[in-house]
Amino acid sequence: MMQPAAAELDIHLRILASRSDSSAAQVIPDAIIGDYHDYATLRGAAKGSDAVTFEHEHVPNEYLRALIAAGFNVQPQPAALINAQDKLIMRQRLQELGAPIPAFQAINSAEEAAHFWAQTGGHVCLKARRDGYDGKGVWFPGSEAELVALTTQLLKKDTPLMAEKKVALTRELSILVARRPSGETKEWPITQSVQRNGICAEAMAPAPDLSPQLEKRARDLGVEIAQSLGVTGVLAVELFAFTGENGVEDIAVNELAMRPHNTGHWTQDGSVTSQFEQHLRAVLDLPLGATEETAAITVMANVLGAPEDPQMPMRERVREVMERYPAVKIHLYGKAHRPGRKIGHVNLCGTDVQATREQAQAAAHFLVHAQWPDTV
C-alpha cells in the first residue's frame, strides 16, 4: 500500500519478500525474494538505498545495528524499535516516561504468576513478550490454577512472558503519529477501533464522542512517546479507554507499533495524507503532509476470510459492492483465502456515524460471505 504513494512521489521501492506471491511483491517490480533472518540477503536488499524501513517489527535488531555500522540509513532505528519488539521493555520504558499504563510484571515462574494474580485480584492478562499479534500471544486465564498451568506450559517452551492488570475497558482508541529524523511530527485524529477475536474488525475516525480534553491528552501522549523514544516513520499508540475514578473517560497505553497500522488504514481515503505516504516521507526525512480528516467520519471495515470461501469469485463480489455502495473504496491485498485472514478492507467517508458504519460493515460482509447481512 506504499507503492502508489511512492510512484506518485518518484520514490523507488525495493521489497524483500519471503514469497513471490506476497502482497507487496505483486505490486512492487523490484522485489527480492529471500529470508530477512539471513543477514547477507538483508544487506543485499538494502544496497543502494536512501533508507531502510519495515512493514513489521520482527527483523533482528543485531542485523539492523550491523546495517547501520555498514553505513545504511535504518528508520526507525533499533533503539526505538526494541520498544515495539519486546512488550516488557516497552512497559518499562513507558513507565520511565510517566505514561499511563496498567500494572505489569515480568513472569519468570509459576510462583510469580500466582503472586501477580493475588496482587490484581485475578484481573490478569498474560502476554508473550515477543512476536504476538492479532490476538496471538495473549491469554486471559479464568482462574489462578489456569494461569499457573498456562505459565508453566509456556515457560517450558522458552516463551518469555509478562503479565499486566486487565483493564475494564469501555472502548479501544489509537493515536497515530509520524516523526521524521530531524524532529518534525504530525498526528492524525484519534481513531476508535473494534476488536473481534483479538483482530481489529473496524476502525473509525475521528473517534465519536471524545471529549476535547481527552483528545488533546491522547495527541500529546502520542507525540511525547514518539519524541522520547526517537521513533521515525509512523507510530501507532494503541490505547485502552476506561472510566476513571471520577467517572470521566480516561486512557492507558496498550501497545506500540512502529509502522503503518491497521487502525490507520482509514487515512487512505479519509485524510489529506495517508499513513503510507507519510511513512515514506518520514523515513526519508521529507516534509510531512497535512493530516486533517477530509470527512466528518471515515469508517474502515476489515475483510476477514470466512470459515469457507464462497463460490462467487471475488471480482464479482467487488462488482456487487460497487453497484450498491458506489462511495465505498475497496482495498484488497492479493491474498489467498484463509479463515480469519485479513484479505482486504473497505473505507467509507460519510457524515453520519451510524449510517456510515452500517454501510461499511455491509460492504465488508458481502466481500467475505457473498451475501448481504440481514440488517441491510
UniProtKB/TrEMBL annotation:
<feature type="binding site">
    <location>
        <position position="127"/>
    </location>
    <ligand>
        <name>ATP</name>
    </ligand>
</feature>
<dbReference type="GO" id="GO:0005829">
    <property type="term" value="C:cytosol"/>
</dbReference>
<dbReference type="InterPro" id="IPR016185">
    <property type="entry name" value="PreATP-grasp_dom_sf"/>
</dbReference>
<comment type="similarity">
    <text>Belongs to the PurK/PurT family.</text>
</comment>
<dbReference type="InterPro" id="IPR013815">
    <property type="entry name" value="ATP_grasp_subdomain_1"/>
</dbReference>
<feature type="binding site">
    <location>
        <begin position="164"/>
        <end position="167"/>
    </location>
    <ligand>
        <name>ATP</name>
    </ligand>
</feature>
<dbReference type="GO" id="GO:0006189">
    <property type="term" value="P:'de novo' IMP biosynthetic process"/>
</dbReference>
<comment type="pathway">
    <text>Purine metabolism; IMP biosynthesis via de novo pathway; 5-amino-1-(5-phospho-D-ribosyl)imidazole-4-carboxylate from 5-amino-1-(5-phospho-D-ribosyl)imidazole (N5-CAIR route): step 1/2.</text>
</comment>
<dbReference type="GO" id="GO:0034028">
    <property type="term" value="F:5-(carboxyamino)imidazole ribonucleotide synthase activity"/>
</dbReference>
<feature type="binding site">
    <location>
        <position position="172"/>
    </location>
    <ligand>
        <name>ATP</name>
    </ligand>
</feature>
<comment type="function">
    <text>Catalyzes the ATP-dependent conversion of 5-aminoimidazole ribonucleotide (AIR) and HCO(3)(-) to N5-carboxyaminoimidazole ribonucleotide (N5-CAIR).</text>
</comment>
<dbReference type="InterPro" id="IPR040686">
    <property type="entry name" value="PurK_C"/>
</dbReference>
<feature type="domain" description="ATP-grasp">
    <location>
        <begin position="91"/>
        <end position="284"/>
    </location>
</feature>
<dbReference type="InterPro" id="IPR003135">
    <property type="entry name" value="ATP-grasp_carboxylate-amine"/>
</dbReference>
<comment type="function">
    <text>Catalyzes the ATP-dependent conversion of 5-aminoimidazole ribonucleotide (AIR) and HCO(3)- to N5-carboxyaminoimidazole ribonucleotide (N5-CAIR).</text>
</comment>
<dbReference type="Pfam" id="PF22660">
    <property type="entry name" value="RS_preATP-grasp-like"/>
</dbReference>
<dbReference type="Pfam" id="PF17769">
    <property type="entry name" value="PurK_C"/>
</dbReference>
<dbReference type="GO" id="GO:0005524">
    <property type="term" value="F:ATP binding"/>
</dbReference>
<comment type="subunit">
    <text>Homodimer.</text>
</comment>
<dbReference type="InterPro" id="IPR011761">
    <property type="entry name" value="ATP-grasp"/>
</dbReference>
<feature type="binding site">
    <location>
        <position position="87"/>
    </location>
    <ligand>
        <name>ATP</name>
    </ligand>
</feature>
<dbReference type="Pfam" id="PF02222">
    <property type="entry name" value="ATP-grasp"/>
</dbReference>
<dbReference type="GO" id="GO:0046872">
    <property type="term" value="F:metal ion binding"/>
</dbReference>
<dbReference type="InterPro" id="IPR011054">
    <property type="entry name" value="Rudment_hybrid_motif"/>
</dbReference>
<dbReference type="GO" id="GO:0004638">
    <property type="term" value="F:phosphoribosylaminoimidazole carboxylase activity"/>
</dbReference>
<dbReference type="InterPro" id="IPR054350">
    <property type="entry name" value="PurT/PurK_preATP-grasp"/>
</dbReference>
<dbReference type="InterPro" id="IPR005875">
    <property type="entry name" value="PurK"/>
</dbReference>
<keyword id="KW-0547">Nucleotide-binding</keyword>
<protein>
    <recommendedName>
        <fullName>N5-carboxyaminoimidazole ribonucleotide synthase</fullName>
        <ecNumber>6.3.4.18</ecNumber>
    </recommendedName>
</protein>
<feature type="binding site">
    <location>
        <begin position="254"/>
        <end position="255"/>
    </location>
    <ligand>
        <name>ATP</name>
    </ligand>
</feature>
<keyword id="KW-0658">Purine biosynthesis</keyword>
<keyword id="KW-0067">ATP-binding</keyword>
<keyword id="KW-0436">Ligase</keyword>
